[in-house]
Amino acid sequence: MTQTTAQASSAPVSASVPMLQLKVKVLRFDPEKDKKAYWTTYDVEAQPGDRVLDVINHIKWYLEPSLTFRRSCMHGICGSDAMLINGRNRLACKTLVRDVAKSGGTITVEPIRGLKVEKDLLVDMEPFFDSYKAIMPYFINESPAPAAERIQSEEEAERMAHSSNCILCACCTTSCPIFWVNGSYLGPAAIVQAHRFIFDTRDEATQQRLGIMNQNTGVWRCRTAYNCTEACPRDIPITQLIEEVKRAVMYGQA
Amino acid sequence: MHHRYDVLVVGAGGAGLMAALYAAKGNVSVACISKLYPTRSHTGAAQGGIGAALGNVQEDHWEWHMFDTVKGGDYLTDQDAAEVFAKDIIDAVYELEHMGLPFSRTPEGKIAQRKFGGHTRDFGKAAVERSCYAKDRTGHMILQTLYQQNVKAGTTFFNEFHVTDLLIEDGRCQGLVAYELSTGELHTFHAKAVILAAGGYGRVFKITSNALTLTGDLMSIYYRKGLPLEDMEFYQFHPTGLAKLGILVTEGIRGEGGILRNDSGERFMERYAPTIKDLAPRDIVSRSIITEIREGRGVGRDKDAVNIDLTHLPREVIEGKLAEITDLARTYLGMDPVKDLVPIQPTAHYAMGGIPTNLDGLCLSDGSGGTVEGLYAAGEQACVSLHGANRLGTNSLGDLVVFGRRAGIAAAKYARQVEYPDMPEGAQRESVDLFERLRNGSGKENAAAIRKDLQESMMNNVGIFRNGKDMAAQVEILKELKARYQGVTVSDPSRRYNSELIEAMELGFMLDCAEAMTASALNRTESRGAHDREDFTERNDTDWLKHTMAYKNLNKADDVIIGYKPVALKGFTRAFEPKPRVY
């Protein structure tokens, strides 16, 4: 099914920039009526600086109102709109049209892999958040807090800079081949969260978290495929952080 | 399905999560309902910091913070709220640190602080370093930390549940009705106390920093009951949104030394705010930018932006402390702040007005002390009137934790003292009617097209500069848009994840917020803070040192009844006389 449309644009570029004529192939699936997923192609006109999310929104608002996906902030901080764009996990609001298609070209859009598809591009996030919750993702320090802040050096604070940058979008975990095959693997996002607390000098539950990481659902499942690092929309060096956690488990301390 | 909790929290952003945490500490059963997944609320988009007079870098005092808040709010700020806030926020920031929040640090290992617009020492004498920050993702870290603490506390979450109605009878809240996106089922939640913390409504404007989900749902539901919305005319435009996109560029960029420049490279803020220049409060900087643009000194093809210049700053500051915005400029504009000037323009950002509350978050039903028993509100959705006519930068994150906490404590205390209220007959009737209407309309109108017309007209007619003629026109435009909205029909018949139905419902909420806002703004014939009228250019304390209370006329369509509430001109120990605002 192909439909035609006017432009999807919201980009800041001027009218002198030529519009791109695109085909957007979306993998659609509604378990209420479909036995299996199918592709639908939409013809869309877009500016090079448009976000892929602008294009998908346009399709929903003016061509195919039933098309379903998550989205919220529109600039890469809420993590709602993780999807497979041209075969790679990305946030649709952080991916510009010009970076994934030329005029006359095609953009393919599919749900992220390894989580059950609920409808179109929208997947069940519960298993992902279950893994998150499994690593005790909260600060633990039972000693009495001082009147002011706990002192921590700039260097010590910087140890958390990468791992605390995570927005839980699931791009990493759902790009991991081990996670696809073995859903009980906690996955890269949960390990990044564990890293954030293991390497926090103020936290007192390091040994418990290292114990969780040492279980057979934990860090040793990682086969260093680097997919997670490539998929991360926040440029977190995830493979490196996983290696740091492995080393901490190995030597029993952070 | 039917549920019962002592305290229900609507919204899982900073205010909702803080309220839920504190309600849970009060030994009552608590559930949190959010239309998003946790950690996806818009608190995460706040970048620059949370202001508190810790004095970690320079001498600072809560009295100075209170003064800046009151003066920044153009004296419409309730001073009792400002005093409570400026004191409480100090403890609240330490508490966030004790919850593990990874703040940036000083060389001594304390919480780092930096300059921000409108933050001064000695009651306005010079800029002061008051904004506590975690790089330029402070809101992201607050949201993550508070969600983590709720996971630890075992708070029950209902994710992707859209509240469709509040149940209020005889002045008491009994609970609410919500639509579960994954099943299409309506749920009734019975509660002793409800805390509303569902955020703002920036999506009524075309250029906005706000998420697509910020559609003013609960403000509208409150207003539809004939209850008032306070100070809706005060809507803040953040001076630095990425040109055309409106994506927020933190004020921390100016706090770190960024300079605004017009087409000739002039540092124009020297003319508008000679003392603190680029660090003037947001309303002043936004108007200065628009004035430069109107007088032909803008940059870009349409000459409708100005530049922010960071090129004189060290690369490590730009890529370290300002990494988030550096990434945004590179991603969306293909520009590198290390060597390029970045075009920005004001973007609709923050509602100073909303559901009126007292200092404990209890919702007010009128301007003379009436309350809605069992109903509380906090965060951007609420108007305790901390922000007055213009919110000081960093006070939104402060507002969330201080007043979210107070609402959580008060709601739990109330819930411990009372029995469950009776539930009304047919609690779901209004919600069923709402969806029936949307599924069975005449089908000639497209919700997206109406929304676009709403956003463009609000931007043009009730934006940064306003006048009576344009706003009167907007009143008529809103009537037409509401009439067209009656012709919207949802075409997708499915029950599960019907996001078309949700978007259509949200549009109805936005139209209400726009109505209350436009009527309030047209009525206020003066200029104050973010409300700047070309036909009434002066602040008028004689007639207008009062809060607007806008009520929907339940007996006459499209009519708004305006009432008032006095401004609290004194705190508990300090009071600041209204004075002209010069910087």
Task: Please count the beta strands of chain A (DSSP E, at least 2 residues each).
Answer: 8
Query: H/E series of chain A, N to C?
Result: EEEHEEHEEEHHHHHHH
| Proportion of residues in β-strands of chain B | 15-25%
The backbone outline of chain B, from C-alpha atoms, is globular
Shape of chain A: elongated
Mean pLDDT of chain A: 93
Low-confidence stretches of chain B: none
**Helical coverage of chain A, percent range:** 25-40%
Distance between the termini of chain B: 56 Å
The amount of beta strand of chain A, in percent, is: 5-15%
Helix content range of chain B:
25-40%
Regions with little confidence, pLDDT below 50 for 5+ residues of chain A = 1-6
Biggest β-sheet of chain A: count, sense, barrel?
Answer: 6 strands, mixed
- What's the Cα radius of gyration of chain B? 22 Å
Largest interface: A-B, 64 and 68 residues
Looking at how many chains there are and whether they match, the oligomeric state comes to heterodimer
| Structure annotation, total helices of chain B | 16
Query: Major beta sheet of chain B, specifics?
Result: 8 strands, mixed
SS element count, helices of chain A: 9
Radius of gyration of chain A: 21 Å
State the secondary-structure class of chain A: alpha/beta
Describe the structure.
- The complex is a heterodimer of chains A (254) and B (583).
- Chain A has 254 residues and is an alpha/beta fold.
- Chain A contains 9 helices and 8 strands.
- Chain A is elongated.
- In chain B, strands 1, 2, 8, 9, 10, 11, 18 and 19 form an 8-stranded mixed beta sheet that branches. A 4-stranded antiparallel beta sheet of chain B has the order 13-16-15-14.
- In chain B, α13 (447-461) runs parallel beside α15.
- At the A-B interface, α1 and α4 of A face α3, α4 and α10 of B.
